[in-house]
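Morning F.,

Quick status update on the modeling queue. The single chain you submitted on Monday has been processed. Sequence for confirmation:
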Amino acid sequence: MRTDYVAIDNAFARVDGVLRRGAAADSRTVVVQTHPRWDSYTSAAAWPMADLVAHGFDTFACTNRYTNSAAGVDVSTLWEPLALDLAAAVQAMRERGYERVVLLGTSAGGPLVAFYQAVAEGGNAVFEPERTLSGFRGFDLPLPPADALLLQSATAGPALSFCIRLDGAVVDEADAARDPSLDLFAPANGFDPERGTGRYEPDFLRRYERAQAERMNRLIDSAQARLARIAETGRPFVDDDFVVIPGVRAYPAFVDLGIAHESSAPHELQPGDRHEVIRSSRPVIATAARDNRGRASGATVHTLTSFLSYRAIRTDPERYDPSAVTPERFGVDMRSTNTSTTSSLEQVSVPLLITQGTADIEAYVPAAEMNFNAAASADKRLVFIEHADHRMLGPRTRETHLDVVTGWLGSR
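Structure tokens below.
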């Protein structure tokens, strides 16, 4: 295998990355990977790339404008410009002579490559600035389309993932005051502190999910009002401001394994070429979701514009259902964000492979099923890898996943 550092500077953007090439000098297929938050070519997420080279597929793992950003990824990330960075990489690979460019998106990279391909196929007509919270209107140059998409452990999108993890108990953003009747980690509400597990009644879940949806809408309204004030007065800054959001690791399914635990229909399960209802084998992650005082842990910092572009999605508190497997039943406006995997896949026609581990604690069975159900591609396949985690690791899961991916690529 030959590994080359590649610096790209073209009409779209400046990016760099690692191009891995196998023994075959005439390879015409390259798999391109990027991620909105990770350094794609040095992180553990890059592991499929070297393995793909051994099976005859060149790979290019590239950075983007927020990789190693001094401002911090979540603070500054605007979703839409990431497509320009990916366009720079696709264009460069075409210019190197590759006839087939396949985009690989892992985790939040999944919604990114889906978004990119939707714009590359549909142009600026895919944007609805009057609905989209970012107000983004389009690109000056057409984006070069890829020939196929691989979504590995893909989430339903950064905004939707953020919403389902919001702590519904928070009632005051300024001091993180919380409603005890909605405390995910209170024994009275169904949490067992000795075992670190939860068993939540339907009534509590309905109240909690409604509170999540209402909180998301409050965050959006506040961000928009603050930006309007800045535009009118130039205070406290002339262009933007910061928002600190506490309690961002509070999804009930983290501790209640009865939530989001199986698919609504049979799907392919590997190894073994089985076709059956998929049941989650994910572990409980209570210790990662709560702090030493038993509160929902984690916080995030954004600019107001980055929150609206990257993390915000309009929700309907009356209908919000984070375990739904179709966009219609989810109770959110998928078109209010450009980060929605399902909305993007509805506008994509190229061959699509979605792979998902049953032990994944970041992207659950319903997310993969919803992404698959929404996809417009005539050639689409959803494969669950038994006992694989978010990085497709587990007993022999890496080999199983690689067999699925290389077999799918090879047949096309």
